[in-house]
């Protein structure tokens, strides 16, 4: 009986270890805001942001083709300029151990991968946790030229390379 | 001849010279400067604006493919790609007015303008030219120098055709195009820059884009959160003698509360030695707010309310107001339904405000082309009386 209890306790521990980490709940949301000349601005969104925690790192990803700027021509140009066929996904990877579950806005550093190039950059996030569930909202300024992206000038309008990226999602601790 | 004169009278009342789309806020365009030569919007499109007219405004039954480039038909004359230096266009609008009464069907020629803009680096020069109407009464009142690009039948007299230049100005873009300094004849910066120039907010403030341009100098500013323009008004040199010219300022500033909500303030004060309507020395005030809100990508709500005052020097003669609320719904891309409510009061002893309701549709059925229908219901209030009127306005509009 005692042995059975010990085996059960061990199996529970193993089980909890194997599932340690965060799992995304629902759909995540990404936004980006870019500026151009004379008050020109672009607001892009994606409702298909994904979050993956492998226990070591926390990875937030979005496919470029899922980002919509409410303008099909602009979407097409964005995909071409960001080489979406070769590098379809933008990711932010952060060591799970560096993340906090309370406080905010918290500034930390993560690795952005855009256009196949990785760069460390600062971002801020605010976790709002209740029990095992956390709503995370974060943002980061990114300069696209740092990732080797050259933005086209289209009919006299050139978007500036400094953009603001925002993300919002819910995760549950398993 | 009498019927021809009547046409011109009505044409001048109902003409709408250009595209001006404050509802573009629903597509994330809070600033107008990327798409229009005028930094505060309306009128000639830039090359970028032409492309967006095809991508966002033109009617489509199938979603646009993301790898689909802008067709050649977006260019000048539907095919001609111009160098960045030179921007040419034209604006033509004609239609018919249908209403109960002795002349139930009246054909209209509303705008026949040609546009030219030179882009010499930061320097921009813009001119429009075309045909319009003038009032013989204005000539009788103001002498042979009078050229009034509007002919108001309520003023009496006849109308004829004339050459007119609504806009001619030169300017410079500074600070990464955020600032534009201009001088010349241009639209008055005030309130919503909407097409419907007979709405009370445009006609009572005298700030429409049809015939109310004035000579002056202005500074326009456009950033992602704030846009605005201040204009010093030197007068309308297409009327004379000088005593009729209004001088003063007009300005607006608009703040982006979010990507889809904008709130603006406007102010105008002018002085004329003789007001064109009352002939009395008049200081004219108009001060108000306007808003553009897009609850979603299909709907835009536009609102404006202005306080009006007219004073002889030192004496407040009249106060009034003008207000407008418009909802613009994309039934599908290129097919819009608009509902408008408006009111206006001139403080001239009317029993109450004039009120109006518009039910309109606009179909951008081919590149550069628009078919528009307006059902205009109005109860006009004037001293001692009020009357109800209905007009069905059908317009075919295209630009080159």
Question: How would you describe this structure to a colleague?
Answer:
The complex is a heterodimer of chains A (174) and B (400). Chain A has a single domain (2-173), classed as Lipocalin, CATH 2.40.128. Helices cover 16% and strands 52% of the residues of chain A. Chain A contains two helices and ten strands. Chain A has helices spanning 2-18, 72-81; strands at 22-35, 41-53, 57-63, 89-95, 106-114, 117-130, 133-143, 153-154, 157-158, 162-173. Chain B is mainly β and 400 residues long. Chain B has a single domain, classed as Porin (Beta Barrel), CATH 2.40.160. Chain B has four helices and 17 strands. Chain B has helices spanning 2-14, 47-57, 136-142, 200-203, and strands spanning 86-98, 105-120, 123-135, 159-164, 168-174, 179-186, 214-222, 226-235, 247-258, 261-272, 282-293, 299-312, 315-332, 335-345, 354-366, 369-382, 385-399. In chain B, strands 1-2-3-5-6-7-8-9-10-11-12-13-14-15-16-17 form a 16-stranded antiparallel β-barrel. In chain B, strand 16 and strand 17 form a beta hairpin. The longest helix of chain B is centred in the N-terminal third of the chain and has 13 residues, at 2-14. In chain B, 46% of the residues are buried. The chains are: A alpha+beta (174), B mainly beta (400). The interface between A and B is medium-sized, with 22 and 35 residues.
**What's the order of the H and E elements of chain A?**
HEEEHEEEEEEE
Largest sheet of chain A: 8 strands, antiparallel, barrel
Give the strand content of chain A: over 45%
Using the coordinates above, name the CATH class of chain B: Mainly Beta
Structural class estimated from helices and strands of chain B: mainly beta
Number of β-strand runs of chain B:
17
Keywords:
heterodimer; A: 174 residues; alpha+beta; Lipocalin; eight-stranded antiparallel beta barrel; two-stranded antiparallel sheet; 16% helix; elongated; B: 400 residues; mainly beta; Porin; 16-stranded antiparallel barrel; 4 helices; 17 strands; 9% helix; disordered N terminus
